[in-house]
Structures are given as structure tokens and as C-alpha cells.
Amino acid sequence: MAFIQITKENIDSEHVCCALGAKQYEDAVHTKKRWLTERMDEGLVFYRLNERAKVFIEYLPAHMAWVPIHAPNYMYINCLWVSGRYKSNDYGKQLIDKCKEDAIARGMDGIVHIVGKKKYPYLSEKRFFEHMGFELVDEVDYFHLVSLCWGDQTARPAFNSKDKSSIVNKGIAIYYTAQCPFALVTLEGLRKVAESYAVPFTTHQLTTKEQAQNAPTVWTTFGLFYDGKFITHEIMSSQKFEKLLRKLLEK
């Protein structure tokens, strides 16, 4: 099967893999497409399998990435997703190879990506990237920054340390971007749960690269805090959030 590149010219007529066939996500997918289109002017590349499947990669120069990292002259993998029956077809490796070929052609020194310390929803598996030759270069909470480097004199990529004093320190605070349709759709349901428990609930959409690069959370797609403390990056259902909230209130 062949890969196709999603561009500004074809993005309106092509799917971007997220939430395929789910009508409740249609508006959020359109928002995601707008976000992607704007990033394409900044060097973002989107490849996917030429099938109706969730098999794709997004990447862009790390200095343009919407995450708080320092990785000069690196390419940042924004998202890599190979789902279901496609996992055994070597597509993940092929997509990373495309990213590497592009990065080398642009004169870059390596690739960076954020993975989970262990297996988590919405995060790439660390062991797969280790198998691909990536090495751990930094960690914050349960997030690991891994890199694949082929340059000789490159700076070691790292997370940026940010002052978290501005985080809302009462109740639930969520920081998010338009990068993921699932995050956009779930927020109102979480708000209703928090209100039912009389817990303050605020959301903070990161709408610029500068805001994201100075965000209090490493995973800017979705970061949930409680009383100023980071809790999870996981985009969850209202039912799962209610269970989490109960545990937080019991402490």
C-alpha cells in the first residue's frame, strides 16, 4: 500500500485519520484540519496510508513544534499512529524512515519525540522507538524525550523548564490545543462532571506556538491539573473522569 502526503491543496478532500466515521467529532476534525493547514506554512508534513485507516505521521522542525522542548536543528514527530491490524505491516518504521529522509534532506541533525515512560493512551510506546534506535535524553513526570541523532556536534535535546506558578491552583485546570479532535470534544462533558461535584473547572486553550512552548505541561495536546499539580495527559470519557475526580477528592 502507498502513502500519500496531505497538503493544503488536498486536505479538504482527504481524511486525516482522526475519529474516522464518528459524526460527533466532525467539527473537531475540521478544527484539526485548520490547525494542520496553518502549520504547513511552518514546515509541518503529514503522511498517511492511502487507505481509510489510522496510519499516519505528523512532523515539523522542532523549533516550530507546539511543545516546550529545546532541540535546535532537529525534526520533531508531532504524532505517529498505526492502529489495529496495520501494526504488523512495518508501517511505523516506514513512516519514521520518511521523517528521517526528510530531516536529512533539510540538513538536520536528528529527530525527537515524546513517549511514555511505560504504555499510556495517546502516547507512543517507548520500546518501539528504542527498537528504532532512539535514546532517552530527558524526562519530566512520566514523559520521556527520545532522540535519534546522526549529527556529530549537536546539542542534546531537552525539555524546557517552565515556571508553573501561573497554573490555576484550585480545582481542575486543563491546558489543551487544537491538535487532537478527541480533546476538543471531551471538555464540556468533563466540565459538567466537575460542576456536579462543585469543583472549580477551567480550560486554557493554547492558540499560538509561543504559548505552547511556554506551557506548564509537556504534553500540550491535553494536560489536566488538580490544585496546581499535574495529574494526567489522558483524554478521557466523563465516566472515567468522574472516577478520577472521586479519588482526587478523597485525598
User: Could you describe the largest sheet, including whether it forms a barrel?
Assistant: 7 strands, mixed
Overall, the morphology is globular
**Helicity, as a percent range:** 25-40%
The class by helix and strand makeup works out as alpha+beta
The fraction of residues in strands falls at 25-35%
Taking pLDDT < 50 over at least 5 consecutive residues as the criterion, the unreliable ranges are: none
Return Rg in Å. Answer: 18 Å
Distance between the termini: 51 Å
| Count of helical regions | 6
User: How are the strands ordered across the major sheet?
Assistant: 1-2-3-5-6-8-7
Tally of DSSP β-strands:
13
Mean pLDDT: 93
H-E string: EHEEEEHEHEEEEHEHEEH
Polypeptide structure, described:
Strand 2 and strand 3 form a beta hairpin. Helix 1 packs across helix 4 and helix 4 crosses helix 6. The protein is globular, with a radius of gyration of 18 Å. Helices cover 28% and strands 27% of the residues. The chain is an alpha+beta fold. The strands form three sheets. It has a seven-stranded mixed sheet, sandwiched between helices. It has a four-stranded mixed sheet with strand order 11-10-12-13, with helices on one face. The protein is built from six helices and 13 strands.
